[in-house]
User: Fold these one by one.
Assistant:
Number 1:
Amino acid sequence: MQDHLSLLLVVIPLVAAPVAAVLPQGRLPWFVALMVTSACATLAGMQLWAVVHDGVISYELGGWAPPWGIEYRIDVVNAFVALIVSGIAAITLPYALLSVEKEIPDHQIPLFYSAFLLCFAGLLGITQTGDIFNLFVFLEISSLSSYALISLGRRRQALTSAYQYLIMGTLGATFFLIGVGLIYAQTGTLNMMDLAERLPGVSGLKTIHTGFAFIMIGFALKLALFPLHLWLPNAYTYAPSVITVFLASTATKVALYVMVRILFTVFPNGFVTATPAADLFVLSGIAGILSASVYAIYQVDVKRLLAYSSVAQIGYMALGIGFASAMGVTAAIIHLFNHALMKGALFMAVGAIIYRIGACRMENIEGLGRQMPWTFGAIVIGGLSLIGVPGTAGFISKWYLVLAALEQQAWISVVVILTGSLLAMVYMGKVIEALYFKPVTETNIVVKEAPMLLLTPTWILVIANIYFGLDAEFTVGVAEHAARALGVVAK
């Protein structure tokens, strides 16, 4: 089975999706999705172990050798991202049982899990493929299912949010496809490793530079990189709680992986620094960190506050990429993992609030800190990680980002990273103030703690935030190995 790990990770959820759609109403579709995500998480862990110990995996689909056939090519970078996607999905599914039953009409639940598995398969396919057009196919699978999942939110705004995401996502996919077409016209290949060999000879052509720009803009839209982030706050705010957890923890991470792969593997070494791309990433990262953090401060809906926080956190990752150094890319990959943990925990806790009181605005949570201590304890610890307090995973991310900035004497970036932490302290402080320092409202006099089925996955991620903040050997080791696999040179 080890020889087929990369294919199984995509095929299993892809086959299970239509099965879930035709199952009767009830908990059977959830059970199928739970088994699929658990199996994929196990396979992804085996794949990462195999890559770390045995080297790159190359799987030829249909027996057609690359570059003529489609190749799944797995190194430490995409094996790590595949583990994040499948691990988060496996943790999210137990949480989904009660949350989905509360927020989704019974007759739509089988279709919900079918779309979830399609989105899951698309994201895993993006991480596995070594073919740049096949990447576009999986991008569309994950995107189309995401639009449907967001539209299932309880409030009417979910439909307009899904439509806005559809328009922006379609624009991003179109830009990406045009860029791929321009590059194919000059190289005659779609295989990523074959492109890496052919592009140095034509990298000076304007067509290649134009194609590169189109691809970067396309995935900047998918990543919600500032200022192309306008779809994200509404999508996260009005989507069902489970989908907000899943997309916030995985979708933007996969988009970041694609950008890193194209920047440092497909295009020749030094291409990034020879173009304005690196400086644009730094500028976008700085602007995103500051502006989105300020926007978060003024939000009265906790979900929307965390959505703007996600835009700011994407800015930190963009900053690491913009440094175009081994340390910078290592920091970006570390934060890719840590942000999935912290934001997954926070959105799960918010989903538990919605499960109990049906809303998550500031006035709805006033004084609830002592009535739902486990739920709001998760928010406090997740918030500390978001701020970057020592002893949490968020501190490790920001420590390595600061080291990467100091390595290049980028003093402005250091100030921005520290300022971003202070702004995070302000907007998370607002939430904590409402929970513990505001009087209980009449509607919040008696509120029960969230069920264990919601709390357990939440606290798994909370404990992971603490564990990987105290022992970062795994995340740092894999991220450094990934930077080397990408061919990023130390500065």
Number 2:
Amino acid sequence: MNTDVIIQGEDIASADLRALHAICSGNGIERIGYVTHQAFRLARANVDSREAVKKHCDAAQLDFAFVPSGRRLDAMGLLAMDMDSTLITIECIDEIADFIGKKAEVSAVTASAMRGEIDWPESLRRRVALLAGLEESALQRVYDERLALSPGANVLIATAKSAGIRTLLVSGGFTFFTERLKIRLGFDFSFSNTLEVVGGKLTGHVTGPLCDAPGKARHLRTARDKLGLRREQIVAIGDGANDLQMMREAGLSVAYRAKPVVQAQAQAAINFVGLDGVLALFDETTKV
């Protein structure tokens, strides 16, 4: 099977494109027109050039990916993705904590957990405990005032749905946000954690099974089996260490503006363009 290199960026210099074409011994340059940024396909690349391509792209602040030639979006069946810092630009729990003056403390634990330095379930319990006593109304304020979709999110999801792909939002965050985003964006499935509320205030606990790293992978497998799909028909996108088990279940794993431990293990990484950059990893896609 032939391999292509996809180069993406907001503004790709011609000199960089020519240099990368030479580095990977490409056989032609094709402009990709169905994304909102600049993207090019370098055909029939030498896979041994990966490190040299990475070095050049890192210096030029460009995204790259080695992909099989001819892979089509409509051959996929399930798009699974994380919520916090992936589908959306914030970590919801950090913003919730800001309402009680504990954002810095909670953010430090969040960042450490996402890097895989501490046990994720324990980190969640520690962070949620710090929210005890907060009015439930703070959750709606976070959703209304601080939550924003990542660039390209609407385009990615709408295009996937147009291609007949089912969508799964699976998060270590909270159902208050995932359920609203499920309705807003039309996800087929969503799973996350439930904050316990008594008397209109957070208790500092979550209820029910945790949606942790094994839980995320389990929900993906359940959706896959329900839809009768193969591993090769699944795309999974995440940014933190707790996404890795889920991403290993996918035929295409994408690290979106992710921690180094995730980028090192994903098949493709997107750091400079939006989520619609995932679409450029396929030969053909459906325009919306």
